[in-house]
Design brief:
Bound molecules: pyridoxal-5'-phosphate
Structural class: alpha/beta
Number of helices: 19
Strand content: 15-25%
Number of strands: 14
Distance between the termini: 46 Å
Shape: globular
Helix content: 40-55%
Strand order of the largest sheet: 3-9-8-7-6-4-5
Radius of gyration: 27 Å
Length: 460
C-alpha cells in the first residue's frame, strides 16, 4: 500500500479514467489531464496532512475538469464587445470587414503570391500593394508595412538614428500601455534620448537650444500623447514650426502618430487627431502608425515618408525580423482597397464610429424590447463610447445601450457568467450597474447578446 492509499487519496489513473474527466481527456489529451490529476492530488495531500478528510475520486475528477475548462477558456476566442470601447486592445482592436475576411480565408487555405510578381514570374516586393495604397492615401513618397506600430517606431529609430541623439519633449515621453515606453524603445533602438522642456510645457526655443548643445543630433521625435490628455497650463510648438526648425538645422522630424487616421473624423465630432496625410503635409519626414487603430485594419504598423529614409528602414536587418505576416498583410490590403474605393462602411470600426446616434438608439430600444419579451427587465440608457486604441482620450462618442436590473454583487456575478459563457460577452460594469453599449456590437450580434443576457440573468 502506498502512503497516498493509506491517506485515502485517489489514484491518478482512477481520476483520469473517471467520467467527469472524460471531456477534459478528449479536449486536452490524456497526458495533460494526468498532469492536472497529479497536481490536484498533490494539493489534496497537503490538506489531508492538515487534518481534512480525503476527497473522493469524483471530487478530484471534478476539480480536474474545472481546471481543464479554465485552460480551454484561455484560448483566444471570438467575444461580443458591449463595453463601448471600440478599439479595445485587450479584445484585439479592430474587427475586420467581409472583404478582409474573404482575403484571409482565401489566403489561409492555399498559397499566396506574397513575394512574387505574377506578371514576370520574378521575385516581387512583399507588401507592394499595401505600400502603394498607403502612398496614395497619405500623400507620402514611400511606405513600408511592418508587424505593428511598436515595430515601426523601433525600426525607424534603429535605421535612422542609431548611435545618434534624438530630441523628445518631456511631455511626450509616454507609456502607451503593454509596457511600450518611449524612453525604453529609444534605448533599445540604439538612439540616444535628449529630453527637452517640462512635463506640461515645451517651447520651440527648448528644441533650438538642445540642437545647439547636441551637434550629434539627427532628429526630433514627436510622439502622439495617446491615451491621455493634458489640459490647462500646457504648451507644445505647432507642428509646422517644429518642422521648420528641424529642416533649418538639417535634422529630421520623425513622428509616432499612434493611430493612423486615413480620413478626417472631425465631422463626427472627433477632433484633435491629425490624419496621416496632415502629418506628412505639415513636414514630418517619417510618420509611424498602427493599422489596427482608427485605420480599422488588422494588426500592423506603417512607416511612411521620404523615399530615401523609408528605403533605409526597408534595408535595415531589423526589417526582416519585424515584417508583417502573410495573413495580416492580405487583410490590410483588402482594408486599404475599401479606402481607395471610398467604401468606408465596409470597414466595421469606421462604420461603428460613423453610425448616427438615432440609429444606435433604435438598436438599444430593440434590444430592450427583445429582453423584456424574454422576461428580463431592462432599460435604455444614454452612454458615451470611447474610440480606444490610444486615440481621443476622452469618451467623445454619444451612444446608447441597455442597463439590466441588477446591481452590486449580482451585477458582478452576472458579468462573470457572461464572460465565461458561449460566446463570451464583455459588458460594461459601471458604478455597480451592468450596461451594454450597442455601438460596439457588430452586425448579427444583437440576438446572440440577448440570448446570452437571458441565460446569465436567469441562472443567477
Ligand atoms: C498604440 C501606439 C503605439 C503602439 O502601437 P502598436 O500597433 O500597438 O504596436 C506606439 N505609439 C503610440 C503613440 C501609440 O498610440
Amino acid at each position: 500500500m502506498t502512503s497516498d492509499q493509506r491517506r485515502g487519496l485517489p489514484r491518478v489513473d482512477l481520476v483520469v479514467g473517471h467520467p467527469s474527466a472524460a471531456d477534459a481527456c478528449k479536449q486536452l489529451g490524456q497526458r495533460a489531464v494526468t498532469r492536472l490529476a497529479r497536481e490536484a492530488i498533490d494539493a489534496a495531500r497537503q490538506t489531508v496532512r492538515d487534518g481534512a478528510s480525503p476527497p473522493s475520486v469524483e471530487d478530484i475528477a471534478t476539480r480536474v475538469a474545472a481546471r481543464a475548462a479554465r485552460i480551454l477558456g484561455s484560448r483566444a476566442q471570438r467575444v461580443i464587445n458591449a463595453t463601448g470601447v471600440l478599439l479595445h486592445t485587450n479584445l484585439g482592436r479592430a474587427p475586420l470587414g467581409p472583404r478582409a475576411i474573404d482575403a484571409l480565408t482565401n489566403s489561409a487555405a492555399g498559397y499566396t503570391s506574397i513575394e512574387i510578381d505574377l506578371a514576370t514570374g520574378k521575385r516581387g516586393r512583399r507588401g507592394a500593394f499595401a505600400e502603394d495604397a498607403l502612398r496614395e492615401l497619405t500623400g507620402a513618397d514611400a511606405a513600408l508595412v511592418v508587424n505593428n506600430n511598436a515595430a515601426a517606431v523601433l525600426l525607424m529609430l534603429g535605421a535612422l538614428a542609431v548611435g545618434r541623439s534624438v530630441i523628445v519633449s518631456r511631455g511626450e515621453l509616454v507609456e502607451i500601455g503593454g509596457g511600450f515606453r518611449i524612453p525604453d524603445v529609444m534605448a533599445r533602438s540604439g538612439a540616444r534620448l535628449v529630453e527637452v522642456g517640462t512635463t506640461n510645457k515645451t517651447r520651440i526655443s527648448d528644441y533650438a537650444r538642445a540642437l545647439e548643445e547636441h551637434p550629434d543630433c539627427v532628429a526630433i521625435l514627436r510622439v502622439h500623447q495617446g491615451n491621455f490628455r493634458q489640459v490647462g497650463f500646457v504648451e507644445r510648438p505647432q507642428h509646422e514650426e517644429l518642422a521648420k526648425l528641424a529642416h533649418d538645422k538639417h535634422v529630421l522630424l520623425l513622428e509616432d502618430l499612434g493611430g493612423g487616421a486615413l480620413v478626417d473624423l472631425q465631422s463626427l465630432g472627433l477632433s484633435g487627431e491629425p490624419t496621416v496625410k496632415e502629418s506628412v503635409s505639415k513636414g514630418s519626414d517619417i510618420v509611424c502608425f498602427s493599422t489596427d487603430k482608427v485605420l480599422g485594419g488588422p494588426q500592423g504598423g506603417a512607416i511612411v515618408g521620404k523615399s530615401d529614409l523609408v528605403e533605409r528602414c526597408r534595408r535595415d536587418p531589423l526589417a526582416r525580423a519585424l515584417r508583417l505576416g502573410r495573413l495580416p498583410l492580405v487583410a490590410l490590403e483588402a482594408t486599404l482597397a475599401s479606402y481607395l474605393e471610398g467604401d468606408l462602411d465596409a470597414i466595421p470600426a469606421l462604420a461603428a464610429l460613423r453610425a448616427p446616434t438615432n440609429v444606435v438608439r433604435a438598436r438599444a430600444e430593440h434590444l430592450r424590447d427583445d429582453l423584456e419579451r424574454r422576461g428580463v427587465s431592462a432599460s435604455v440608457v444614454e452612454l458615451r463610447s470611447a474610440v480606444g486604441g490610444g486615440a481621443y482620450a476622452e469618451e467623445p462618442l454619444e451612444s446608447w445601450g441597455v442597463a439590466i436590473g441588477a446591481e452590486g454583487s449580482t451585477a458582478t456575478s452576472i458579468a462573470q457568467r457572461l464572460r465565461t459563457g458561449t460566446p463570451p460577452v464583455l459588458p460594461r460594469v459601471q458604478e455597480g450597474r451592468l450596461l451594454f453599449d450597442v455601438r460596439t456590437l457588430l452586425a448579427g450580434e444583437d440576438e446572440l447578446l440577448a440570448n446570452a443576457i437571458e441565460r446569465a440573468v436567469k441562472n443567477s
